[in-house]
Design a protein that fits this description.
20 strands; disordered C terminus; 40% strand; globular; 2% helix; 6-stranded mixed sheet; mainly beta; 1 helix
Length: 334
Amino acid sequence: MRTFEFLGPNIVSLGVVMSGMQQMDDGTNLGTWYFREGSGLGFNNDRTVPCPVIEAVEGQTVSVTLASNRPHTIHFHGLDVDQANDGVGPTSGYVAAVVPGDDFGRVNGYTRLVSPFTYTFTAPHAGTYMYHCHVDTVLHIERGMIGTVIVRPPDGSTDTVWNGGPTFDKEYVWHLHTFDSAWHSIQISDSNTVRHSPDYFLINGKDGNQIDADPASAIAAGAGDRVLIRATNVGYQPALVKLGGLAFDVVASDGRPLASTLAGVTEQWVAPGERYDLILTMPASANATAMVEYWDPRIANILGTATAPVVEDPTLFADGFETGNTSRWSNTVE
């Protein structure tokens, strides 16, 4: 069972909002930029940052259309797609202003603002991937233009990590990232974006006590349930994930099964841009606090942390989005 809303499968149309706002736990409102479908919001359709989860099915054709009146791309980080569709402007699909006499690398003339570009590819291996804007990348990622792509196995099943792979009962996506609030009033990267000094430490765009009340981040399941956590580092600091001393298995990295499952570990590093698939078998009476430590590797120091409850309680958040009308998001939602 998913704990998040999603777009797809396979066909998605995204627009861009550059006037978003996200309220942090201390009441501060930060300006955000994000992708969305229609008039929806970002991740789980209840916040601006990160962006919505996109789902696809292995072996099927995927079409993601981007329309924008400002220069943006969608880069499919880690997905095996051809150059014209990987969103690394200007050698790929790119929504941008036409520069007379400067057509180098532009694809099929799709360079006009407002004119949409459709990225088309065959979904590769089942697994966890990332997408982000690749225009002025350092700033566009930080301000929120980031999200997760999940490729399901060829049969579209939502209880198996890959065909013949591990099964699970409940599924979370954890976007691991930080905000440097000073960057959220900057329009173009410059000398002020040379150093990233985060002052907010997040899971799925939430910080502090917000995470405890977020059903897409706080982990709750029945005793013995196998909980899949797709941990994606969409930030700039290495993150060390701990589940409050509870042991878990690491089954995949960057969209590929590990040669051997890392069984019974209690922590996992996730570097910027990396994805790890973690499976926790929920112990009876579990009542732990997961912690994500964000590190500065230069000085080997923890810059800050984000915490989330991990509890054995199948009823917690049971009245969440699963019972609501999610038809606008997908006709295959569970």
